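Model: Ready when you are.
Researcher: Fold this.
Model:
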Amino acid sequence: MATLNVKNFPDALYKKLRAQAKRERRSVAQEVTKLLTGALASPKQLSILDLKGLGKEHWRKLDAAEHVAKERASWD
């Protein structure tokens, strides 16, 4: 496993990181790994069909990507 050393890491940021790690019952290294894993993960693809509440029924029968493309084309 690789080792990461960070030079000139701000003291105030390290204190926040250490406090968060303590709250989560992790070591600072574990907390850094968790934060970096989340920050570098591929974003979850969102779908208009996942909407909650008003409008969901409207989109169920439509191709959302096609609808958005038509809307954008109408702006020109």
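Researcher: Now this one.
Model:
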Amino acid sequence: MIIAPSFADIFFNNCFKNAILPIVLDEAKVDQLFNEVDVNEGYQLSVDLEAQSITTPNGEVINFEVDAFRKHCLINGLDDIGLTLQHVGDIKAYEEKRKQQAPWLFA
């Protein structure tokens, strides 16, 4: 998880490809969290992706947004290959059909 007021598009998208949750919060909230970290050794946040919330040690709950599809992939540990493998039966059926339609492609 990385919290910041903004992310470059490429970095933001690559985070999800590497199972990292980039959380966008307003700059004032990010500054508040940094200040709390500075004055509290061992400061830890609790992140609940399913509820899309962060809980601070003092009990403050901060909500964040995340795309539903990307949330699903993170929760289920799915990368691009994992998503593709969910359709392995359909892929095999297509390949068999294609072999019958154009056998010269598979010689």
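Researcher: Key takeaway?
Model: Helices lie at 9-17, 27-39, 68-76, 80-85, 88-101.
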